[in-house]
Design brief:
- With 411 residues, the protein is of the alpha/beta class.
- It folds into three domains: 5-112 and 243-310, FAD/NAD(P)-binding domain (3-Layer(bba) Sandwich); 118-239, FAD/NAD(P)-binding domain; 329-406, FAD/NAD-linked reductase, C-terminal dimerisation domain (Enolase-like, domain 1).
- It is built from eleven helices and 27 strands.
- The strands form seven sheets. The chain has a six-stranded mixed sheet with strand order 3-2-1-7-20-19.
- The longest helix has 18 residues, at 184-201.
- The chain is globular.
């Protein structure tokens, strides 16, 4: 075992923010980041938003500038992969055959795009998946001249954000989704329909309730085949059908894996091993169950929490999941527990027709999720209502003249 070496496998936001926190907490041992990409660690939201739309520079997405790692004595090993892990010996085998010993290990290996099976869809030019900055650059190159027929497979967050960016460049855009309305699994039919109308008003064609059966083309994509045999013509196809956590290392050494690496509330996975970010399925003390969250805020929060836990601090990670999106003239922040949103009712503060409102999901008299649309500086108040679990007075909750910290039910 290498005394005082803290090794982080994963060069994304969770890993980089963990390294930063180790130094902020005055850890003076060796810190090593293994980054599978030949990139300085960056955040991913701009890849489907500002950067894809040509409104941000690549450097805007960096967690820290390249000089920061040298100045803080953090070894950033780029384009290097861990191919094997020996938990008992506290060693990692790298892709070049070298062995790297550690005292404590953080697995922040992220997730990979869920792919359509090659046996049915083949490998055609013009088909894009979006996960890395290079993916975003390739897609931006395909979109930025406009005038192309773009088909997006998947009506979730990534699909809708890509659709908005593609329309911004002047392309003809069709979104294909299996559900009745976009985002139905996460927002429900009413607010999913609201997002659908935003896209229709901006010229996006939505084909919902359809299955995708295959692609057409010889070498290059020409169309998407629907379940009934109809072919939707396409010059560019973007597939956004979810992500799969990268758990291969953990599974190979017998760590508990179940839709992610299973960790406790302190983000510990096993003997001197922690996990954070997209790959971690952490026990949430409020829910009383394990929860895996893929959004960037979770990586931004779990990375530092894991670092402090590795240093021996008491950590019980109980943050409310958070997400944001920008699509056309719609900006939104969402906080809440998706696992508690079944059998809830939605109430509104503000006017949906005006495009400025807050939606609250109520389970009885408690707020379990909230979404502010084009209303700003309120998310902290929304999150507090969710985190405290205090009963609210519905009439006060929907009254925009009453501050959010004054809507609790009076005893």
């Amino acid at each position: 075992m290498a005394e005082n070496t803290y090794l982080i496998i994963g060069g994304g936001l969770a890993g980089a923010s963990a390294a930063r926190t180790l130094r902020e907490e005055a850890f003076d041992g060796r810190v090593v980041i293994l980054a599978a990409e030949d990139e300085v660690p960056y955040i991913r939201p701009p890849l489907s938003k500002e950067y894809l739309a040509g409104k941000a520079e690549r450097s805007d997405a960096l967690v820290e500038g390249e000089d920061w790692y040298r100045e803080h004595d953090v070894e950033l090993l780029r384009d290097r992969r861990a191919v094997a892990l020996d938990v008992a010996a506290h060693e990692v085998v790298l892709d070049g055959g070298e062995r790297l010993s550690y005292a404590k290990l953080l697995l922040a290996t992220g997730a990979s795009p869920r792919r359509l099976p090659a046996a049915h869809f083949g490998e055609l030019d013009g088909v894009h998946y979006l996960r890395t900055v290079r993916d975003s650059e390739a897609l931006r190159e395909a979109l930025h001249d406009g005038g192309r027929r773009v088909v997006v497979v998947g009506a979730g967050w990534i699909g809708l954000e890509v659709a908005a960016a593609a329309r911004g460049y002047g392309n003809e855009v069709t979104v294909l989704g299996r559900e009745g309305v976009p985002l139905e699994p996460v927002l429900g039919p009413e607010l999913g329909a609201y997002f659908g109308e935003v896209h229709r008003r901006n010229g996006v064609t939505l084909r919902m309730g359809v299955d995708v059966a295959g692609f057409t083309g010889r070498g290059t994509i020409t169309g998407v085949v629907l379940g009934g045999g109809e072919v939707v013509p396409a010059d560019v196809v973007v597939v956004g059908i979810g992500a799969v956590p990268n758990t291969e290392l953990a599974r190979a050494v017998g760590l508990t894996v179940d839709n992610g690496i299973v960790v406790d509330a302190s983000l510990r996975a096993g003997n001197d091993v922690w996990a954070a970010g997209d790959v971690a399925r952490a026990f949430h003390p409020v829910l009383g169950k394990h929860l895996r969250v893929e959004h960037w805020a979770n990586a931004d929060r779990q990375g530092p929490a894991a670092a402090r836990s590795m240093l021996g601090q008491h950590i019980s990670f109980d943050r409310v999941p958070y997400f944001y999106t920008d699509q056309f003239d719609l900006g939104m922040e969402f906080s809440g527990y998706g696992d508690l949103m079944d059998d809830t009712r939605v109430v509104y503060r503000g006017d949906r027709e005006s495009g400025e409102f807050i939606a609250f999901w109520l389970a009885g008299d408690r707020v379990v999720a909230g979404m502010n649309v084009n209303v700003w500086d309120v998310n902290a108040g929304v999150e507090k209502l969710i985190a405290t679990g205090a009963p609210v007075d519905e009439a006060r909750l929907v009254d925009g003249t009453i501050a959010l910290d004054e809507v609790q039910a009076r005893q």
